[in-house]
Amino acid sequence: MLAHSFEALIPATLTLPQVGALLVLSFFASALTAGFGIGGGIAVITVMVQILPPAIVLPLHGVIQTGSSADRVWAFREHVDRAIVGWFAAGSVLGVVLAATVSEAKSPSPPTPSAHSAPNRNP
Asked: Assign residue 37 a region: left if phi > 0, alpha if psi is -120 to 50, beta otherwise?
């Protein structure tokens, strides 16, 4: 029963050996980061790009890093300097708004129908 429910969590595009490789990689990437304080994330992205569709690598990595960071914050919550959390949050919101604005401004606009295009037959 457990194996069946586990398989439901694996995307159809991944094989069990690929999932195993990602799990082993995550262990070694965590050890690399724990030992040196840097490098685990880039190691994970490098392998993920080889296994997963490129369009989902960055969003998935962002979710993974958010979970990892949230876990660390929870574990060390008594050491968090609450006086600066508000400033950090405000800067983060400002950064997201600015990045979204720039991204929207740089995005190509969708093509507009021309006089020579076929008419829309769906009312």
From this structure: left
Cα distance between residue 100 and residue 109, in whole Å? 15
Number of other CB atoms surrounding residue 21 within 10 Å: 15
Distance, in Å, from the CA atom of 66 to the CA atom of 59, rounded to the nearest integer, reads 11
Q: Per residue of the chain (123 residues), give pLDDT as tens.
A: 455 666 777 777 778 888 888 888 888 888 888 788 888 888 888 888 888 888 888 888 888 778 777 888 888 899 989 889 999 999 999 999 999 999 888 777 766 666 555 555 555
* Distance separating alpha carbons of residues 14 and 84, to the nearest angstrom: 42
Q: Which stretches of the chain are assigned E, i.e. beta strand?
A: none
Ramachandran region, residue 107 (left: φ > 0; alpha: ψ -120 to 50; beta: rest): beta
Amino acid at 76: F
Backbone angles phi, psi at 118, to 5 degrees: -70, 145
